[in-house]
Amino acid sequence: MSKFDKYMSVTEAAKKLGINRQAVYEAIKRGNIGCIKVGNMTLVKTVSVEKYKVNEKCKQAGFKSKDARQ
C-alpha cells in the first residue's frame, strides 16, 4: 500500500462529492478539506472528503457537526 493510497485527485474528489473542481479548491482554501501538494499536483485526503460529505449532509438536514479538517 502506497502512502498516496490515502489521497485522491481534485477531480476524483469533485466526482465523489457531486461538486465541481472549483468548489473542491474553495473547500480546501477554507480548510474544510485537507490536501497535500506533490509538485504542481494537489492531492486531497480521502478521509477529509468522506468527512466533508457527512458534514454537508448534516448541514442540509439542519444538524451541526465538527468540520472535516484533518
From TrEMBL:
Stretch forming the signal peptide: none
Residue ranges annotated for the Helix-turn-helix domain, each copy included: 7-52
Domain of life, per lineage: Bacteria
Alphabetical list of Pfam families matching this protein: HTH_17
Single GO molecular function: DNA binding
NCBIfam families: excise (TIGR01764)
Entry protein name: Helix-turn-helix domain protein
Taxonomic lineage: Bacteria, Pseudomonadati, Planctomycetota, Candidatus Brocadiia, Candidatus Brocadiales
